[in-house]
Amino acid sequence: MELWPAIDILGGRCVRLVRGEFSSETVYGDPREQAEAFVAAGAERLHVVDLDAAKGDGRSNRELVLDICARAGVPVQVGGGVRDESAAAALIEGGAARVVVGTLAVERPELLARIAARWPGRVLVGLDHRQLGVPGSTRRTVAVRGWVTDGGLELGAALARLAGEPLAGVVVTDIDRDGTGNGPDLAGLAEVLEASELAVVASGGVATAADIAALGRLRAGGRAIAGVVVGRALLSGELSLREAVAACGP
Asked: In the chain, how long is the greatest CA-to-CA distance?
């Protein structure tokens, strides 16, 4: 299972949010320095998200993101605000190993198909989901535009629409757990493994090496989790990069 240390960028700073709420940000300094620190500690890949671009209000940190890609020395997958083919091209041609698209996949599936065909194996779909506002409901709806808007599509339906596309996989983020350290949604991720043949990268709630090891042991439909995104636990120092790598297994 691959470890993807996360660097979220807002206003040029490395930050973490709780449940995607912009009012909950914690600042962790300069994104370039954090990328260098992760790599120096043994990270073999990075997950970078441009939160400004994700909100879609005209701001972005693209130059900063591309600088990280150029200097990292390891593969970098980039998400946030990739809503057209030109944005995907700018990132991939600028050095990103893979791009993560979310809003585009929900709102413009025909464009997703074109982008995936142009860069097979280098595009992932970010399925950021939260529980529907019905007490006791287990149904999940996909959020778009920086998690601010309900995309009007249930998680299972979103997965079904991706069947057959030449994607690198899906990044499945439980918004209700993201940044909380409450542990990953193992049951929900098992359902995702059962529902799709795409590689699944888990995100949201990871706090400890035990959480990562539990993801590594998870099996459903004869399949396993391909990767895990870890942010706050690594940035805060509560979990070391070495511990996280070891928990991912050989």
From this structure: 47
Domain boundaries, the chain: 2-247
Question: Angle CA(36)–CA(40)–CA(41) in degrees, nearest 5?
Answer: 120
pLDDT of res. 182: 86
Query: Per the residue annotation, which of 52, 128, 178, 211 is the catalytic one?
Result: 128
Give pLDDT tens digits for 120-162: 999 999 998 877 655 444 567 787 765 556 657 888 999 999 9
What Cα–Cα distance (Å) separates residue 62 from each residue in 9, 69, 138, 219?
10, 10, 36, 37
CB of 68 closer than 8 Å to CB of 78: no
Those residues of the chain that have pLDDT short of 70 are: 19-20, 23, 132-139, 145-151
Which candidate, 1, 21, 52, 14, places its Cα nearest to that of 214? 1
Nearest to 35 by CA among 73, 82, 61, 62: 73
Could you confirm whether domain 2-247 is CATH 3.40.50.300?
no
Rounded-to-integer distance, Cα 26 and Cα 236, Å? 10
Task: Please check whether residue 199 is in contact with residue 147, taking contact to mean a CB–CB distance below 8 angstroms.
Answer: no
Catalytic residue selected from 8, 174, 178, 185:
8
* Structure-token match 């206003």, residue found: 11
**What radius of gyration, in Å, describes the C-alpha atoms of the chain?**
16
pLDDT value of position 149:
61
SS3 137: coil
Q: Judge whether 8 counts as a catalytic residue.
A: yes
Concerning whether 211 is annotated as a catalytic residue, the answer is: no
Q: How many other C-beta atoms can be found within 10 angstroms of the C-beta atom of residue 34?
A: 22
pTM, entire model: 0.92
